[in-house]
UniProtKB/TrEMBL annotation:
Keywords for this protein: Lipid biosynthesis, Lipid metabolism, NADP, Oxidoreductase
Species assigned in the record: Flemingia macrophylla
Enzyme Commission code: 1.2.1.84
PANTHER family: FATTY ACYL-COA REDUCTASE, MALE STERILITY PROTEIN 2-RELATED
Source organism, top-level taxon: Eukaryota
Gene3D superfamilies, per database record: NAD(P)-binding Rossmann-like Domain
SUPFAM superfamilies: NAD(P)-binding Rossmann-fold domains
Protein name: Fatty acyl-CoA reductase
GO biological process terms held by the UniProt record: lipid metabolic process
Tagged with keyword Metal-binding: no
Length: 522
């Protein structure tokens, strides 16, 4: 495999970026504009109905971010004209046939000019409505593949997926519960219990394709058209009986979980992403397709500056609740490995893989993670959090610093149930008695807290098969790509993606945790 110069490849190229408002997509866009201003054109497909809405999203959800400050400083007064010259906004919707492109002239322009398509569109909500997740993560992929086959100059399609859906999911479960103080309604204190749920199946997860009809539990018969029919029938049934919007939303969420579990997946997100990959393999035909699977993506390590992050992302939920003094327990293997990778490293791997397979058309799957070459444990994460928030505590609205300490580690389900009973369910029973004695004075509080505890117990049971994951992600293909890049003159100082070089102590203490506090803490 020969990669060569990424900068040379990008010059005069036209790239279609799908899902351009996403976290990784913004970093990908900024990187190209900053390092190769001679890129010809970047089509940004945005999920909107018209050009005015597309421009609004560009200005407010992309260019307004601190991420673009370096580029703005570099270009100065020329920034707006540069953006206008390089970016073409494309109103569309990949859940629709033809990606929802209404402008036939613009569609023809994209088909005739595009050299590379990068698909980053997805809903990453684990508990998403099934109709939405299936439309975007599964049928959206089909529509992208169909469109790619119409692009006459296309050299490669890069599909960004996820490494986690093969064996596990991660989920932060947080609820507010009564901390037993006294039974006065005004003095009842709320705090949070959070259980960080990991998976239990282990081994080496290989960089292998998913074939259509595969399942995690061996159940056969997976058919996306049948899944679509199930969704449509359920929606018709709900509407016929006059279900409210909330009832439809809940039913669609429950349906997604149920359908995922039929085939062995724990939630709707990982199920629909997996089936999306199956469609890539089934429908790609003669297209040169690269599937890139990042693991847990965290803040930028170096570029355009260290520590930029957006949204509460997986392990960041853990940091936020811990830093605010609301994390009381950790459910899982504290010595287990958590595979994380900074976002700029993922973007660099995307660019290098894209160039390699555009020059030499072929198919490939790349895991971009750290668990094989530079493993990080949950114990280390806890240590970093304790050290950082002890030295730099979060200040509450009342001006008092939040004190943090080591959380209670629960290593099995029996311990978890006992912990929940003693600390939360038993006090709730006391609240129930007080409520009865005081003429239902605490009824609303009791019902709310009871519901939240039930939600936690249900979700923990739902993710029970995945709570003690003990696996790592093979990245042999990615390592071969790194070696090829070094040996063929790629600008590896600019397009670095070797996770072995990361000093986790420096990264979390000096970059990631400060970044979370700056961009996520509210």
């Amino acid at each position: 495999m020969e990669v060569g110069s990424v900068l040379d490849f990008l010059q005069d190229k036209t790239i279609l970026i799908i899902g351009a408002t996403g976290f990784l997509a913004k970093i990908f866009l900024e990187k190209i504009l900053r390092v190769q201003p001679n890129v010809k054109k970047l089509f940004l497909l945005l999920r909107v109905s018209d050009a005015k809405s597309a421009n609004y999203r560009l200005q407010n959800e992309i260019l307004a971010k601190d991420l673009f400050n370096v580029l703005k400083e570099k270009l100065g007064a020329n920034f707006k004209s540069f953006i206008s010259e390089k970016l073409t906004l494309v109103p569309g919707d990949i859940t629709l046939e033809g990606m929802g492109l209404k402008d036939s002239i613009l569609k023809a322009e994209i088909c005739n000019q595009t050299d590379v398509i990068v698909n980053l569109a997805a809903t990453t909500n684990f508990d998403e409505r099934y109709d939405i997740a299936l439309g975007l993560n599964t049928f959206g992929v089909k529509h992208v593949i169909d469109f790619a086959k119409q692009c006459t100059k296309l050299k490669v399609l890069l599909h960004v997926s996820t490494g986690w859906y093969r064996l596990l999911c991660h989920k932060m479960i947080s609820i507010s519960v009564v901390k037993k103080k006294n039974m006065s309604h005004s003095d009842a204190t709320l705090h949070t219990i959070s259980a960080y749920v990991c998976g239990e199946r282990g081994g080496l997860i290989l960089e292998e394709p998913y074939h259509f009809g595969d399942s995690l539990n061996g159940v056969s018969g997976l058919d996306i058209d049948e899944e679509k029919t199930i969704v449509c029938n359920k929606l018709d049934e709900l509407r016929d009986r006059g279900a409210t919007d909330l009832e439809i939303k809940i039913a669609m969420k429950n349906l997604g979980i149920a359908r995922a579990q039929v085939y062995g997946w724990p939630n709707t997100y990982v199920f629909t992403k997996a089936v999306g990959e199956m469609l890539v393999e089934q429908l790609k035909g003669n297209l040169s397709v690269v599937i890139l699977r990042p693991t847990v993506v965290t803040s930028t390590s170096k570029e355009p500056f260290p520590g930029w992050v957006e949204g509460v992302r997986t392990i960041d939920s853990l940091a936020v609740t811990y830093g605010k003094g609301k994390l009381t327990c950790f459910l899982g293997n504290i010595n287990g490995v958590v595979d994380v990778v900074p976002a700029d490293i993922v973007v660099n791997a995307m660019l290098v893989a894209m160039v390699a397979h555009a020059k030499q058309p072929s198919d490939a799957i790349y895991h971009v993670g750290s668990s094989v070459r530079n493993p990080l444990t949950y114990q280390s994460l806890q240590d970093y959090g304790l050290r950082y928030f002890t030295a730099k505590p979060w200040i509450n609205k009342d001006g008092t610093p939040v004190k943090v300490g080591r959380v209670t580690v629960l290593t099995d389900m029996e311990t978890f149930r006992r912990y929940m009973f003693i600390r939360y369910i038993l006090p709730l029973k006391g609240l129930k008695l007080a409520n009865a004695a005081l003429c239902q004075y605490f009824l609303a509080t009791y019902l709310e807290l009871h519901k939240k505890i039930q939600v936690v117990m249900r979700l923990v049971e739902l993710y029970r098969p995945y709570m003690f994951f003990d696996g790592v992600f093979d990245d042999m293909n990615t390592e071969k790509l790194r070696l090829a890049a070094r040996e063929s003159g790629t600008e590896t100082d600019l397009f670095y993606f070797d996770t072995k070089e990361i000093n986790w102590d420096d990264y979390f203490m000096k970059i990631h945790l400060p970044g979370i506090v700056k961009y996520i803490f509210k």
